């Protein structure tokens, strides 16, 4: 063996031992050196599994039907399951027809318990909420599927016994259900094997920001001002143990149904030296990003709070937020707007320096686990950090003549970014790869304050100081509808009831109803609704299917700067310069008003799937609120 090949194999062994499977696979692919060989046929099978070439995988395993029906069923289940999980967790809106077809194929080759466990995932907000898939990633899932397939295929193909033992030995140490879950700890069914895996040093979380005081004074800060026509609601009883479905409690599956504005409390906060203007969650809901008047962008981890809400892991202990990364001097001026691409690979921000910055995201989880303090990046260099630090890539887009007030990614295409600004009636469409303006969309006669995207990216909504709500078809490069709000004040913000978050939740809900035979809980009729926040604090609701005004609310007394629908579209939240948050129950029409901030509230965001809210304010804080 050549020295270089031996060196690569030693590196591969180390990466495998550390469970760095993505790096392991990339090194194998780039170098052409494989750590082990299973024979010509299985080596080819390994290649197509790791590349996710599922049509070729089906062609490969079909001949097994003539040799062993049981082996075929086992292998078909393993690869179909992986294909299903990948499609379900794709960054774009899950395609219902594709998922239904795969589930029907899986049902033919799986036993009822395995199938029911897989179907139970449909009721979860995301795959990693299931304890069998806590650390699931695309590469680790493919790798594990291959390893499990090898054990089945060894009954037919002449695989060297030592290689089979390596597969079993490699995964056996990590599959005890009592051990810490890992990427390979999900499917192996040998209760006699004991875990020998060492405790990972990454499990310890570092507190960068102290949790807020949860004393009784906190209750005096939260002022429940108004609940129109509010009847006494029965108190929600303490959660009882419910019937297991794939080891996930039903009481955890419908957590959004427990949301009530009067039950909100402050969980934690992030502070800055200047007002925090804007915010966005990543699509997984594990991180959020803040844009500040101090010209910085901060990426914060929400793992601690999400774990508490879903699993009660911290048993009532105080919560905190990890500020994982800070990009200082992101702009020459204040950061006015920000959006996180649905692929989670890019963050775009706009500023009063007239520029848009596209920031290419490093692995924030690895950064969080490997660093003991917030990583700070400024003027092209890290100011601190330990070990090998990830490369930070940025791109600046120039083209606006004034303040950039809004940026919005196409939900299904990171290369497409829309923006609008002060004093410009044009909406800009950018190619984030080239940094060039693709199209300018004329139509508004005033400053464009906000742009929102429909879930599949088929159309976008924009509002401006000309009191018009416009819907845009990017494929036709033209406006498809204009709704005039001449009787209203200027329009500050807009959100859609069929945005990416709602579309993703709706697709999963339909699948759950189909395969779990769940009772229909969502409203039967779902007209597409646009909510608009106005300069005088009014919130207006528009039926964009019929093209008409539905209703309006006057619970704010100053600018309504931001608003958003919850993932189940049962609630609309808004924020205002009067320092309050407002809620509308979309089923009943009741509205509520609460206060948590000491100054104007500039932005409000719903978590992608949990009853968690992120608000930012001129009081220099971003606050996490939950029930």
TrEMBL record:
Fetch the Pfam families from UniProt.
WD40
What PROSITE patterns does UniProt report for this protein, alphabetically?
A: WD_REPEATS_2, WD_REPEATS_REGION
Bias class Basic and acidic residues marks the residues at 189-200
Disordered: region residues: 173-200
For whether the record's keyword set contains Nucleotide-binding, the answer is no
Domain of life assignment:
Eukaryota
Q: Does the keyword Zinc-finger feature in the UniProt annotation?
A: no
Q: Where are the WD repeats?
A: 328-359, 441-482, 594-627
What is this protein identified as? Uncharacterized protein
């Amino acid at each position: 063996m050549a020295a270089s090949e031996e060196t690569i194999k030693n590196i591969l062994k180390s990466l495998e031992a550390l469970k760095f499977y993505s790096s392991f696979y990339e090194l194998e692919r780039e170098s052409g050196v494989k750590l082990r060989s299973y024979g010509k046929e299985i080596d080819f099978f390994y290649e197509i599994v790791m590349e996710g070439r599922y049509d070729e995988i089906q062609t490969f395993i079909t001949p097994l039907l003539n040799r062993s029906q049981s082996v075929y069923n086992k292998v078909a289940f393993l690869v179909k399951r992986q294909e299903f999980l990948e499609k379900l967790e794709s960054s774009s809106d899950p395609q219902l027809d594709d998922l239904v077809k795969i589930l029907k194929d899986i049902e033919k080759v799986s036993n009822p318990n395995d199938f029911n466990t897989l179907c139970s995932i449909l009721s979860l907000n995301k795959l990693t909420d299931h304890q069998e898939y806590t650390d699931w990633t695309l590469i680790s899932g493919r790798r594990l599927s291959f390893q499990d397939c090898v054990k089945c295929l060894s009954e037919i193909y002449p695989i060297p016994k030592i290689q089979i033992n390596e597969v079993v030995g490699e995964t056996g140490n990590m599959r005890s259900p009592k051990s810490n879950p890992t990427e390979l700890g999900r499917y192996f069914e040998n209760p006699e094997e004991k875990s020998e895996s060492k405790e990972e040093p990454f499990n310890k979380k570092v507190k960068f920001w102290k949790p807020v005081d949860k004393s009784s004074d906190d209750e005096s800060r939260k002022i429940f001002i108004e609940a129109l026509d509010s009847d006494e609601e029965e108190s929600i009883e303490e959660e009882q143990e419910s019937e297991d479905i794939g080891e996930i409690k039903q009481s955890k599956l419908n957590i959004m149904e427990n949301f009530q504005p009067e039950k909100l409390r402050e969980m934690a906060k992030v502070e800055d030296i200047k007002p925090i203007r804007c915010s966005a969650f990543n699509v997984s809901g594990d991180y959020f990003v803040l844009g500040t008047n101090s010209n910085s962008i901060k990426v914060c981890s929400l793992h601690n709070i999400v774990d508490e809400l879903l699993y009660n892991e911290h048993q009532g202990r105080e919560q905190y937020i990890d500020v994982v990364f800070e990009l200082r001097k992101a702009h020459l001026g204040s950061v006015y707007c920000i959006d996180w691409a649905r692929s989670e690979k890019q963050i775009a921000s706009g500023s009063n320096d007239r520029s848009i910055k596209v920031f290419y995201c490093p692995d924030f989880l690895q950064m969080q686990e490997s660093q003991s303090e917030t990583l700070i990046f400024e003027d092209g260099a890290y100011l601190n950090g330990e070990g090998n630090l990830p490369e930070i890539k940025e791109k600046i887009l120039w083209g606006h003549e004034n303040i950039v007030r809004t940026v919005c990614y196409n939900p299904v295409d990171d290369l497409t970014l829309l923006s609008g600004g002060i004093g410009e009636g044009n909406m800009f469409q950018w190619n984030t790869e080239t940094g060039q303006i693709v199209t300018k969309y004329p139509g508004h006669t005033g400053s464009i304050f906000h742009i929102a995207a429909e879930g599949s990216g088929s159309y976008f909504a924009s509002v401006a100081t000309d009191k018009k709500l416009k819907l845009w078809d990017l494929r036709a490069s033209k406006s498809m509808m204009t709704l005039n709000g001449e009787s209203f004040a200027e329009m500050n913000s807009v959100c859609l009831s069929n945005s990416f978050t709602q579309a993703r939740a709706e697709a999963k809900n339909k699948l759950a109803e189909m395969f779990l035979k769940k009772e229909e809980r969502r409203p039967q009729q779902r007209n597409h609704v646009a909510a608009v926040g106005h300069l005088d604090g009014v919130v207006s609701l528009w039926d964009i299917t019929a093209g008409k005004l539905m209703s309006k609310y006057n619970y704010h007394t100053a600018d309504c700067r931001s608003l958003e629908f919850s993932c189940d579209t049962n609630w609309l939240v808004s924020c205002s310069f009067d320092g309050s948050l407002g809620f509308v129950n979309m089923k009943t029409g009741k509205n509520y008003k609460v206060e948590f901030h000491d100054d104007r509230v500039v932005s409000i965001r719903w978590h992608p799937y949990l009853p968690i809210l992120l608000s930012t304010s001129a009081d220099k804080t971003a606050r996490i609120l939950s029930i």
